[in-house]
Amino acid sequence: MHNPSEHSLLSAIVDDLAARGWSQQSLFLPAELSRGLAAECRRRYAEGELNPAGVGRGAAQEIREAIRGDQIQWIDPGESDVCDRYLGKMDGLRQAINQGLFLGLEDFECHFALYPPGAFYKRHLDRFRDDDRRMVSAVLYLNEGWQVDDGGQLRMFLAEGVEHDVQPLAGSLVVFLSGDVPHEVLPAGRERLSLTGWFRRRGNDPF
Ligand code: OGA
Ligand code: MN
Question: I need a labelling partner for 75 at 20 to 30 A (CA). Which of 25, 41, 83, 108 fits?
């Protein structure tokens, strides 16, 4: 089903995850698809469909704003062609990770995120204390012509005190183990769009 270059892209991500727990691919999506996704995100924002993101569970509004300032909307299959194409690609990645790393990933949940100018997300881990189903985080960026001076980098805190910054450039994908890599989003000087998601394994609850 995958063409050879798509196959080697997925293998590179799986190999990186196995070797060091994270991967960065600057050409994960064709420009045409990331442009379509950016337009879809902007359209939803203009129509008031994005809402302030929560923090963990049940945190108060003031606490949330001091921690993260992005606006989000969760994506479901069947809402738009561009989103479905993205979900299809991520399902291919889910299967590749399962074949290579035996993580037993069962699904992928994701949301659009829009950081208005000045917004940030303080250092955190993506795995909740009371819900450990999130195994692998995947962030796709949708910003054309992003400059270093625009800020808004994803800063990852890796082993041995190493920090790695990712520019949120259109078509780039960053993937990392949700329980292992603390990270933050630095304040952005211009509107910053992304699609953020998590591959999850089955939960322990009996239902
Ligand atoms: C998140 C997050 C990173 C980014 O939404 O949990 O850390 O670069 N996003 O947008
Ligand atoms: Mn995060």
Answer: 25
Is the CB of residue 194 below 6 angstroms from any atom belonging to ligand 1?
A: yes
Check pLDDT > 80 for residue 84: yes
Residue 4 CA to ligand 2 center (angstroms) comes to: 31
Pocket test for ligand 1, best of 24, 67, 115, 137 (most atoms within 8 A of CB): 137
CATH T-level assignment (fold) for domain 4-201: Jelly Rolls (2.60.120)
Task: Calculate Rg over the CA atoms of the chain.
Answer: 16
Per-residue confidence band for 57, with pLDDT thresholds at 50, 70 and 90? low
How far is the C-alpha of 143 from the C-alpha of 48, rounded, in Å?
Answer: 20
| Three-state DSSP string of 57-96 | CCCCHHHHHHHECCEEEECCCCCCHHHHHHHHHHHHHHHH
Task: Give the pLDDT of residue 117.
Answer: 97
Ligand of minimum distance to the alpha carbon of 192 = 1
pLDDT band with cut points at 50, 70 and 90 for residue 45: very high
Distance CA 151, CA 21 (A): 25
Q: Where are the domains of the chain?
A: 4-201
